[in-house]
Amino acid sequence: MAAHKASKTNSAAELARNWQLEGGVGFLLRLLEARYDGLYQSMTQQSDITPRQFGVLMALYQVGPLTPSVLADRISCDRNTLSEMLKRMAERRLVSKKSNPDDRRSLQVQITAKGEEALLSVVPAAAELQNIMLAPLRKEDRAHFLKCLLAIAKAAPPESASDS
């Protein structure tokens, strides 16, 4: 048992010595997120709608009223986080909740006129931000890069990760 533990420690130490931080997915994603968040704030010139709230408003604008469960799936957000976000957005009157005509036991969330106005004021900057973020890539590589990011983001967790 002790020999196995020592071998594992040596293996981890070797991995750590040879690790390329700039090649690490987590490190690069944090850099990308920090760059995106900073540019989002400076380019949209407002702090009313966070990038995640932008996704909520965009989904509701494009699709129409949705149940929180369907909305959570659509924007890949856990239901508890979405519930808190919707509460804050409803307080600011960006979204409203109404009973679901298809199932009275559930609610539907819809974008309000104020939410639509806020969303549409941010859309041009968000489109420009997309162009700026992708600018370092050749035009022919951009769609592939986005497809790869989506594949990683939507991949099911490995069996060992979901068992812990």
UniProtKB/TrEMBL annotation:
Signal sequence extent: none
PANTHER family xref list: TRANSCRIPTIONAL REGULATOR, TRANSCRIPTIONAL REGULATOR, MARR FAMILY
Name the UniProt record assigns to this protein: HTH-type transcriptional repressor NicR
Pfam families xrefs: MarR (PF01047)
One Gene Ontology biological process: response to stress
PROSITE patterns: HTH_MARR_2 (PS50995)
InterPro entries, alphabetized: HTH_MarR-typ, MarR/SlyA-like, WH-like_DNA-bd_sf, WH_DNA-bd_sf
GO molecular function, one term: DNA-binding transcription factor activity
Residue span(s) of domain HTH marR-type: 22-154
Superkingdom in the source lineage: Bacteria
